[in-house]
Every structure is written in structure tokens, then in C-alpha cells.
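Sequence in, structure out. Go.
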Amino acid sequence: MPGDPRPIGVFDSGMGGLTVLRALMARLPNEHFVYLGDTARLPYGTKSAETVQAYALQATRLLIEEGVKMLVIACNTASAVALYLLQEAWEPVPVIGVIEPGARAGIAATRNGRIAVIATEGTVRGGAYARAIHRLKRDVEVVQQPCQVFVALAEEGWTDSPVTVAAAERYLKPLFGGKGAPDTLVLGCTHFPVLAASIRKSVGDDVALVDSAETAATAVAAALDERKLASAPGYPGQARFFATDSPQRFARVGEIFLGRPIDARQVELVDLRAL
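Output:
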């Protein structure tokens, strides 16, 4: 079979979604990707649902115009409030968010039926993870904790600093310090996987960490196979980058999340306000 050479579009409010792209590129080395970071308007986690929906429609319209075969919403906040809107807007293009794959993985990981979710204020406020988990398994106990400071720490590259460890202790000790604590922690923001070492020091070795980037990559791979959209094997895939502000900062900070250098000259500056 010739395969489908069209790229996969990946959208995030900024650079955190590059952890999803990193997982996708590792899992699907023959696929091409177009990544858009809406860096001019981040963070999404503190904005209203209506504002995030409007931004998400503009961003994904650009990716659709690039001829993508699938959209990946690599932003937990946008997945929480805009996934169904985007699925309806761009049908028949498949649109995959990060929340349901993370919910499924959390349920698979827990042994005591108690799951903690850490995320941005917007994701926690909307309760999207709790709803997704309870749709799949009603008797699971879910506790949520907004960890907005983690976003700034990740973007500064302070992935395992004393400040980051102290923030993790402040956020997580109340959740995991007592009897009957959760045994599974869902990292419900795509910034958070780069802070895993600091998070692990706070929660201990017995708590399962669920990375929404890895679980999203698994879901995308399954959807490509199911819909017969996978690229033909042979040549390695390529990634293109768009940003809505400062390609230089996108390249510098994005390297933390992607795990490899990004040439700022290859980051195209775009204005979504006209879309």
C-alpha cells in the first residue's frame, strides 16, 4: 500500500505540546508533522472556555489549510473545552485530544481505585479528567490539584531545581501524605512530563505517573491504523513549526520539551487573528 503522506497537525497554546510531538515522532518515525504553538496568547489555562474555543478554532483552521490528515490537540485545556467543537467543525478530519487517552491510562494503572490529576486551573475547573475517568469507570475516586506554577517552571527549564522540588512538595504532599492516598498521578498538562523527576521526589516511587504525551501518541497510532491513514514506511518523517510570537523564544524554550534543538530560522511566524 502507498500509505498517506499528508502531515499530522499538532496544536498547543505554546511549547508544552512539544512533549506530545516528541512522543509522536518517537512512536511514528515515518510520519510528517506540522506543529503550531499559539505563543502570543498563552497560557490558555487561565482563560474562559469561550476564549479558548475561539483560539482553538483559529489555530486548527491554519492546520487544516496546511492539508493535515489528522489533528492532535496537544493542550489539555483546549482538549477539555474545545474537542467536540473541533471534531464537528473539521469532520471528516479526525481530531484527537489528550484527556481521554490519559484517563484510560490512569484507570489501567491504578490498583486501589484512587487517581490524582494535576493540571492547569482551567482544566481542573472544568473537571474534564474526572468526567472522562468516570465515563470509563464510575467507581474510581478522583482528586484534582491545579499546579499553574509548574507551567512557568517548565518553560524556564527548571526541571529538577530546588524551587521545582519545593513547588511539587507544596502541591502534592497534601494529596499523597496520608492513608488512602491515590496510587496513580495523571500529569494532566503537557508541560508537566519534563518535571517528572521533581514530581517523583515528592510522591515517592510507589505512585504510578501517567504521561498524557505518551498516552496521546498511543491513541494517534491506533487511530492511524484504524482509519488506514498511516504513512508508508521508508523515509523518515519531518516536522514543521509555526508560532504566533517570537520564533527565537519558541526555539529556545521548545528545545526543553522536544528534547532536541530547534532552528529558529525554521519556525514560521503566523498571525491567527485573520483566520
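Check: The mean pLDDT is 94. Residues 49-65 form the longest helix (17 residues).
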